[in-house]
Structures are given as structure tokens and as C-alpha cells.
Amino acid sequence: MIKQELVALIEKKRAELIQVAITNGFTSSVAIRYSQELDNLINEYNRIYIKKVSSSAC
Fold first, then answer.
1. How far is CA 42 from CA 20, 24, 32, 45, 56, in A?
2. pLDDT per residue as tens digits for the range 21-56
3. pTM beyond cutoff 0.85
4. Is the CB of residue 12 less than 8 Å from the CB of residue 41?
5. Mind listing the GO biological process terms from this record (predicted)?
6. What structural domains does the chain harbor?
7. CA distance 50 to 58
8. Which of 57, 31, 8, 52 lies closest to 41, judged by CA?
């Protein structure tokens, strides 16, 4: 997956999470699931792009 695709997925999931949280509440099971999915996408981005930059800078 290229960087732009992953960033787009993160932005889309963040928007979905906000909408679900507004509609169903921040602690609803759906909001928690979306939050976990967003966390996974952000972790994937960090694993692929952030740590690669950090390790090559040393």
C-alpha cells in the first residue's frame, strides 16, 4: 500500500469515527470498534513510514 492510500484510509476512518461517536456516543461498541480500526491504520503507518525514517536517520 502506498503512503497516500494509507493516509486517505486514516482520514476516512477518522471521519467515520467522529460521525459514529456523535450519533451513538463515544463509548458505544461501534465507536470503540472504529477507534480500534483507526488505531490499527495509524500503527501500520507508523510501522511502515515513521520508524523507517527514524532508523535511516541514525
1. 19, 23, 15, 5, 20
2. 999 999 999 999 999 999 999 999 999 998 765 555
3. no
4. no
5. regulation of sporulation
6. 3-57 (4.10.280)
7. 13
8. 8
